[in-house]
Amino acid sequence: MKNFKYLIISLILVVISGCVNAPKKPTFIKQNDYSYLKEYLNFQIKKDMEKYDIKGLSIAIVDGDKTIWQKGFGLADESKQIKATAKTVYRIGSISKVITATQIMNMYNQKKIDIDAPVNNYLKDFSVKSRFSHDKPITIRSILSHHSGLPSDILAGM
């Protein structure tokens, strides 16, 4: 009887686990058909949110200048139990560094800036009081690589 109980539990777990597999990828996907991508993202996002203890997020698929799909997952505010939506606004945080660095490197590739020139070539009023008398000028490259010597965490709570 005890083995029969474990057999039933095992069968239930097999059936349940079959329900949590990734959606089957079609052999052929037509151009501009995002149905499988949406289905897969719905599955994977929910799985990863649980795995990494992510409380909430919002996502959009953009093709050219068209928003194809947008959706919120989980909570935008856990304490107030407010659900995340496609329109939830989030604090940008450190992602702004990546966006800024990408644009700087685009400008560098277009020969609009020199990343090895002193920052003062572009920001005339920029200055940092240094404790060293023999400092080299701060360059865009040194800022991008976190070697400029700029003070960090100067904002309250950061």
Strand order of the largest sheet: 1-2-3
Quick one: biggest sheet? 3 strands, antiparallel
Alpha-carbon Rg, integer: 25 Å
What is the overall pLDDT average? 83
Molecular structure report:
The protein has 158 residues and is an alpha+beta fold. The protein folds into 2 domains: 33-90, no CATH class; 92-151, no CATH class. It has 4 helices and 3 strands, in the order ααβββαα. The protein has a 3-stranded antiparallel sheet with strand order 1-2-3. The protein is elongated and about 65 Å long. The model is unreliable at 14-18 (pLDDT under 50).
Main features:
single chain, 158 residues, alpha+beta
Give a quick rundown of the structure.
With 158 residues, the chain is α+β, with helices and mostly antiparallel strands. It has four helices and three strands; from the N terminus they run ααβββαα. The protein folds into two domains: 33-90, no CATH class; 92-151, no CATH class.
Strands, helices and their partners?
Blueprint: H1 2-18, H2 35-51, E1 56-63, E2 66-77, E3 82-83, H3 95-109, H4 140-144
Antiparallel strand pairs: 1-2, 2-3
